């Protein structure tokens, strides 16, 4: 067990430092578009699945060192975001006024397309019933 812990610690140090170096060049503003996904609602003891409407927003003022960013909707600042750094990705967490959560993960740039693959999840409730959505899409750097 001790060898496993040492090996895991060594891997964490090696990959962790590579991730930190790679994220030094991470952009500070993205325009994201999510055209694929599904939404689920819970009603009468069952989940019901429907395709959600397309979703687009921006994430700006990304500060990885301070782990903060800004959600931008329709060109206007909407809400502060918490940033959680990961190897090959950054997670942007929004806690909305009612305490529900939205999570966007932006992965490293795809060299073939120049886009950043992304996933967006929403976890909320409506009239006391669970509602959640999962989107797949991509983000592009916005100057």
Q: Can you put this structure into words, describing what you see?
A:
It is a single chain. The protein has 143 residues and is an alpha+beta fold. It has one domain (26-141): Porin (Beta Barrel), CATH 2.40.160. Helix content is 15%, strand content 58%. The chain is built from one helix and nine strands. The chain has one helix at 2-23; strands at 30-43, 46-50, 55-63, 68-73, 76-86, 89-95, 101-107, 116-126, 129-141. Strands 1-3-4-5-6-7-8-9 form an eight-stranded antiparallel β-barrel. The radius of gyration is 18 Å and the shape is globular.
Looking at this protein, list some descriptive labels.
single chain, 143 residues, alpha+beta, Porin, 8-stranded antiparallel β-barrel, 1 helix, 9 strands, disordered N terminus
List the topology elements.
Blueprint: H1 2-23, E1 30-43, E2 46-50, E3 55-63, E4 68-73, E5 76-86, E6 89-95, E7 101-107, E8 116-126, E9 129-141
Antiparallel strand pairs: 1-2, 1-3, 1-9, 3-4, 4-5, 5-6, 6-7, 7-8, 8-9
Largest sheet: 8 strands, antiparallel, barrel
Main sheet: strand order: 1-3-4-5-6-7-8-9
How much strand content do the residues show? over 45%
CATH fold node name: Porin
CATH architect. name: Beta Barrel
Stretches with pLDDT under 50, minimum 5 residues: 1-23
Q: Helix fraction?
A: 10-25%
Total individual domains: 1
Q: How are helices and strands ordered from N to C?
A: HEEEEEEEEE
The number of E-state strands comes to 9
**CATH class identity:** Mainly Beta
Number of helices: 1
Q: How big is the Rg?
A: 18 Å
Global outline: globular
Termini separation: 49 Å
What's the mean pLDDT score?
Answer: 86
């Amino acid at each position: 067990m001790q060898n496993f812990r040492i090996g895991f610690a060594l891997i964490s140090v090696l990959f962790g430092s590579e991730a930190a170096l790679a994220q030094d060049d991470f952009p500070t503003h993205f325009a994201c578009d999510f055209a694929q996904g599904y939404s689920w609602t819970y009603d009468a003891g069952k989940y019901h699945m429907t395709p959600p409407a397309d979703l687009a927003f921006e994430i700006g003022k990304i500060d990885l060192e301070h782990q903060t960013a800004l959600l931008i909707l329709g060109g206007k600042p909407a809400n502060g975001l918490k940033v959680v750094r990961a190897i090959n990705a950054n997670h942007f967490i929004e806690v909305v006024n009612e305490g529900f959560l939205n999570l966007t993960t932006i992965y490293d740039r795809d060299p073939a397309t120049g886009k950043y693959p992304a996933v967006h999840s929403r976890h909320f409730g409506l009239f006391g019933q669970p509602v959640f959505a999962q989107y797949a899409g991509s983000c592009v750097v916005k100057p």
